[in-house]
Description:
- The structure is a single chain.
- About 40% of the residues lie in helices and about 20% in strands.
- It is of the alpha+beta class.
- The protein folds into 6 domains: about 5-60, Helix hairpin bin (Helix Hairpins); about 75-335, 2-Layer Sandwich (D-amino Acid Aminotransferase, Chain A, domain 1), CATH 3.30.470; about 340-450, CATH 2.40.50.140; about 455-530, 5' to 3' exonuclease, C-terminal subdomain (DNA polymerase, domain 1), CATH 1.10.150.20; about 535-625, 5' to 3' exonuclease, C-terminal subdomain (DNA polymerase, domain 1), CATH 1.10.150; about 640-705, 3-Layer(aba) Sandwich (Rossmann fold), CATH 3.40.50.10190.
- Strands 14, 15, 16, 17, 18, 19 and 20 form a 7-stranded antiparallel beta sheet that branches. A 5-stranded mixed beta sheet has the order 2-13-10-3-9.
- Helix 6 crosses helix 11 (about 260-270) and helix 19 crosses helix 20 (about 550-560).
Amino acid sequence: MTKVQARQRIAKLREEIDRYRYAYHVLDQSLISDAAQDSLKHELEQLEQEYPDLVTPGSPSQRVGGAPRPEFATAEHASRMLSLVDVFTEDEFRAWADRVSKRAEASLDFFVEPKQDGLALSLVYERGVLVRAATRGDGRVGEDVTANVKTIEAVPLHLADAATIRRHRAALAPALRLLGDWEAMVAQAHRGRLEIRGETFIGKRAFAAVNAAAEKTSGKQYANPRNLAAGSIRQLDSTVTARRRLSFFAYALIGIDCATHEQEHALANVLGVPVNPLSNRCDAVGDVLRYYERLGAQRKKLDYEIDGIVVNVNSRVAFTELGVLGKAPRGAIAFKWPGEEATTTVEAIRVQVGRTGTLTPVAILAPVNVGGVTVTHATLHNADQIRRLDVRVGDTVIVHRAGDVIPEVMSVLTNLRPTRTKSYRFPSHCPICGSAVEKRRVGTKTGQSAAYFCANPGCYARQRERILHCTRRGGYDIDGIGEKTVDKFLELGLLTDPASLWELHAEDIAQLEGFGQTSAENLVRAIAARKTVALDRFVLSLGIPQVGEETSRALAVAMTQESSGRAPLTPRDVLRWLDAQTLDTLQEIPDIGPTVAGAILAWVRVRDNRTMIERLHDVGVTIAASRPLHAASEKFAGKTFVFTGELAVMTREDAEALVRTHGGKAASSVSKHTDYVIAGERAGSKLRQAEQLGVLVIDEQQFLRMVQ
């Protein structure tokens, strides 16, 4: 990017960020997610670091919050309430740690604490009594919200005195040891003015209760706990705030002498102001990184939202000497977990051809970290989605990814759109084989949409995807067959369709670069070992639109019942059964509605699909109910389970099979009909949906105990 381009981009970013910040801080409106806004701010900060002469005093990177609302009296802070610079990767964090160590000319230790996702507050105590509470506002002037803050049970109206502390000396022993002469420090806190800064927030259970009550009365739902906490603390009626059950954690003390940030936490604790018990001192960078990983694994189990950790230089002398840069102290950093949404730019739009000939548009993106994964591609689904979003090359977009979901473009930030961009037009010919493209209206589970298809059944891309689909875990599960191998075999004519996998000869493969006689024989043996496949896997491997694992299993159960359990079946038996079905008979099968039934019948009428099944029969593929199609027990009968995140003991596929074995249903998405969500490590948006819907969330060990 040239300096001229950087200047233009910076100007647009500043304008958009200011618009979002004003809406959030002044109007209590969230126009985009916190993660997407963080992503824009991060891009601005990176550009300003690269071109420091383009930094201006009015840049959002130099600001802290928003202007106070006129309904509240203003409160001027004795010293600026600063914000923090965000980092999202280990490299960015290490770079910050290196900078502060070099600037301090010393080896530093750190104090780390969870970064609460709430609203920053300043509490002022005079002679131990709370006299004022204020929001951060623009960092210099905030809103006086004393009446509302006094309704928060976690905020003491009087600081604990020495007599009270002595009565609880045993429980407070660790904190008192850190303080040394704690009696002198407590006396100092009670003599004059003490300011305690921290974060007010609402717990997940309290948030769910407020949302449930709101839905009954007005049908309104609050977007997230942070918005609710901010809105609650800025209520004109303090009785509303009191009903919201807000909480508070302190993170800094001003107006008292403490040698370390750790001591500040200890003193706040003994004075009766809660601090986050997960906070900790770290001797070195490696300790901070381990803390970051541990807390990341734990965060979903906490009853409050956190979006990262705050890392402080522990020494208060070193922290002060490091000074302030713009809006943030140099001696502290917010080390955030990558959000499930981020902003990036569209570098190109390309079309992929699937196994059914469907043309799927894909956005090629400037690399961006979303949910801990570097994303360079995101699906645009279909022509209707492109038209709805009006996404164009050069656009800044919000990309979403949760758990193992394929990244997708959620929206376009049109105010950041470059000039002279053009609307995207779907190709009239297949980008792979050049054949004409057909436009059709197809049914999906959410309605009708426009889809484009390659009209050539022999299209290379269609054959490639069809073969790969068959070899994957849900189908024949053949080891040794990946994308590069399939590409090479298709190019040489060794593969033409899924059935040709069982026509491969070791002698032909051994002559190819990268293979020898032994590896060729091993590959042929691995393919031969998968010639008999479970009935539900066979149905899934056919690639029928709308037919996933659950529907494949339902079809397999129906076929097995009609064949009286006869095995082995043949592909031709499956074809005969499909030919005998109607819309009505298919809809008698559990979980199959008119859209799925129509897709099955339309698929089986296509000559190329029928030929594929006949070819599989001719090469000797046989089908057996090798996995139990009937429940071993009815323990989970009528119950629906959803798995999210990484399981430790078993794969997600095995866990879902276990649910089915006991008569339950394993679904891919959370709804009001879901009974259990099993959350593993790095659980995604499904966990949040479960919490919002009030679905019971359990961990893997609890699930296994249910099975046992």
